[in-house]
Design goal:
Helix content: 25-40%
Radius of gyration: 18 Å
Order of helices and strands: HHEEEHEHEHEHEHEHE
Oligomer: single chain
Strand content: 15-25%
Length: 281
């Protein structure tokens, strides 16, 4: 979501031209496809369907890989715009096998789920999955939210309103309003002000952003990191684009969870490949 470039900015401009129709703008913001997900297309080891009921009565289908019964860590993966819970599961599968419970989150209006996406709705969906995760892992559950792009925005806003153990964002922007054409931001129905959300999170935050990301500018990552409450860590990934290469960064996400779990985030990561960098506060 780079300022001044094509992509989402152009689609928002087109939607704004439709007499300010909020439903048209939301369609462009979320690009939700209601086609049901065939999870076998997306994963190597099929996860278990996980039905979650929201506070406003919607039944959403996500997926889970159960972890070690003695492990109270739960990792929730939030997918991005135009995606679905199958793609979330494809990414999240790289986080399995370490004892943690892993859940691919889904939203209203996506992947066969009922309802229509809005900012308030997606945050409510995320909170419902957090509640479900606590019921799975028990009263000592430690909930970690991992979100890609728009999913990072959902994770940040959920963490701003519900206690979690940590948040990891992948290719996440600062404010959706900044992607609109000049002077049009006030007309966007869902602002997704992640700068504001970051000030309200009382948990460690890890951010990852590729230096070759064509949708989220490094200046947006800088702004989000500057606003975040400590402890926060910002890893820039050399030559990486917008979509996460989980074979490459999955181990880094897992080790970040372990570092937050043990209180060792100030020393994480131990080493980075050439062209990568880290900032901490």
């Amino acid at each position: 979501m780079r300022r001044g470039t094509a992509g989402l900015s152009a689609t928002i401009a087109a939607a704004l031209a439709l007499a300010g129709c909020a439903s048209a703008m939301r369609h462009e913001i979320y690009q939700a496809d209601a086609t049901p997900v065939d999870i076998s297309r997306w994963t190597r080891a099929a996860p278990t369907p996980l039905i979650v009921r929201t506070q406003d009565g919607l039944s959403l289908t996500g997926y889970q890989w159960p972890g070690d019964p003695a492990d109270h860590d739960v990792i929730l993966f939030f997918h991005g715009r135009g995606s679905n819970q199958g793609i979330a599961a494809r990414y999240a599968e790289y986080l399995t096998g370490h004892g943690d419970h892993v859940i691919a989150v889904s939203y209203r209006g996506f992947g066969g789920n009922p309802g229509k996406p809005t900012q308030a709705g997606l945050v409510a969906d995320g909170r419902a999955f957090v509640a479900k995760a606590r019921s799975i892992a028990g009263p000592d559950a430690r909930i970690y939210l991992v979100g890609h792009s728009l999913g990072g925005a959902v994770a940040l806003h959920v963490a701003a309103t519900a206690p979690v153990a940590g948040v990891i964002t992948l290719s996440t922007f600062d404010k959706l309003e900044e992607s609109a054409p000049a002077g049009m931001g006030a007309l966007i129905p869902d602002k997704w002000n992640n700068l504001d959300a970051a000030t309200k999170i009382h948990a460690p935050l890890v951010m990852m952003l590729g230096t070759a990301d064509k949708r989220v500018a490094m200046t947006q990552g800088d702004a989000l990191f500057a606003t975040a409450r400590p402890p926060a860590t910002f890893v820039t990934i050399g030559d990486a684009g917008h979509n996460p290469d989980m074979a490459r960064i999955g181990p880094l996400v897992t080790s970040a969870v372990e570092a937050m779990d043990s209180g060792a985030l100030a020393r994480w990561p131990d080493a980075l490949p050439p062209g990568w960098s880290v900032r901490r506060k």
